[in-house]
């Protein structure tokens, strides 16, 4: 959109994903994205599986592949799996017939650019040169387009040489089409890589900090919204990322924090590792605490009871369920023998089934399938259920007719508001037993 003079080709090893990008229904939901893709597709934006051709044609190549937590071998469950990044580097080296600037866009451990450069340097064709830049991405899902258009900053780390500086200038030229120059931050490569991990760790830490206070609120009578407001009005702290929740989800915070902790352990600085591990431990505690509260409140048994879940995605305005706290809560309730009615207007039913029958979640997929019903209407989802559970902060859930919902439910009817979005007092007047996170 911002660079009509630049040809952008998105390539992926998944032919299925590319065909979805070339179809009417894109593989992800992101506000504003459909419109952009419709306007630019086959104009200056192309989606293709012809990876070799795209590499040969390109001057700048962004590596934006997944860097998930390793599920095997050394660093299992903590280290970032760099297999996909490495495969990209090898393909680029083997295929390139002209000089390239390779941009590390994926989130990676500090000094990953060094490995990329080594692979490129050891495998290239004669007379082909590479520069590797670190240019981490800071967008959030659900507001991705807005974040990209109005980025707080664009960070570019480069090798401290004349060629490195040249590469930085080439990439800056692209961003300068819509980002003011003063927002482009130039650092060395390693600072850039660590800034990305650090930024996610800081954001996650704020959530764990307010969640830790939510626990105290529930036992002391303080109200976490009031506490968060009072804290956030200090201009040194600021109001953002202080909403208590069932815990943070999403594909990155947990993965990147685990990676940071693992790097600290490898660098033999256990004190720093333990510090950041606490952010993750608090997050796990919050998820378990919320699930246990539901069971306890429903007279210590949910076996055979039907419970409604509003929201399954890890946040509003996305269909992404990766590491969603709703999965943890659903798993705990299913383990206790509950039946779940799940309503999330943005998540595909198949995705919910896939998440809840994943071997990590259950060793009994047939039972799970029998115990869940996926609804496309919030009112039928509430029919004959004992409780409504909210893990996602959608405004849509605020605007429902709760009197109508109450009528359809088994009494006493409970609401467990893990995002503190509903009006506690109004619901209590209707007759609901309400549990709101961070409030007694
Ligand atoms: N999702 C987000 O909002 C953000 C993600 N990031 C980082 O961006 C990276 C990608 O994240 P997502 O897009 O969420 O992952 P994703 O898993 O949704 O997408 C990665 C894509 O890369 C493709 N791929 C894997 N190997 C390939 C190869 N050799 N050649 C071509 N394509 C290949 C996969 O098929 C997949 O479609 C991660 O490092 C993540 O930490 C950073 C900021 C925001
Ligand atoms: O590296 C990444 O992938 C991205 O990770 C996060 O973005 P994202 O995970 O898409 O979404 P967030 O808005 O950060 O929300 C993450 C989780 O924290 C929760 N959250 C957020 C804010 C808050 O106050 N409380 C809270 O519980 C959300 O509900 C959600 O589950 C960061 O915000 C982005 O800057 C970063 O680029």
UniProtKB/TrEMBL annotation:
Biological process according to GO: glycosaminoglycan biosynthetic process
UDP-glucose/GDP-mannose dehydrogenase C-terminal domain sequence ranges: 308-424
One of the Pfam families matching this protein, by short name: UDPG_MGDP_dh
Active-site residues, record numbering mapped to chain: 252
Catalytic activity: UDP-alpha-D-glucose + 2 NAD(+) + H2O = UDP-alpha-D-glucuronate + 2 NADH + 3 H(+)
Keywords carried by this UniProt record: NAD, Oxidoreductase
Enzyme Commission code: 1.1.1.22
GO cellular component term of the entry, any: nucleus
Pathway field: Nucleotide-sugar biosynthesis; UDP-alpha-D-glucuronate biosynthesis; UDP-alpha-D-glucuronate from UDP-alpha-D-glucose: step 1/1
Binding site for NAD(+): 12, 17, 65-69, 106-107, 141, 252-255, 322
SUPFAM superfamilies: 6-phosphogluconate dehydrogenase C-terminal domain-like, NAD(P)-binding Rossmann-fold domains, UDP-glucose/GDP-mannose dehydrogenase C-terminal domain
Source taxon at top rank: Eukaryota
GO MF annotation terms: NAD binding; UDP-glucose 6-dehydrogenase activity
NCBIfam families linked: NDP-sugDHase
Protein family per UniProt: Belongs to the UDP-glucose/GDP-mannose dehydrogenase family.
Function of the protein: Involved in the biosynthesis of glycosaminoglycans; hyaluronan, chondroitin sulfate, and heparan sulfate.
Name of the featured protein: UDP-glucose 6-dehydrogenase
Species the sequence originates in: Macrosiphum euphorbiae
Taxonomic classification: Eukaryota, Metazoa, Ecdysozoa, Arthropoda, Hexapoda
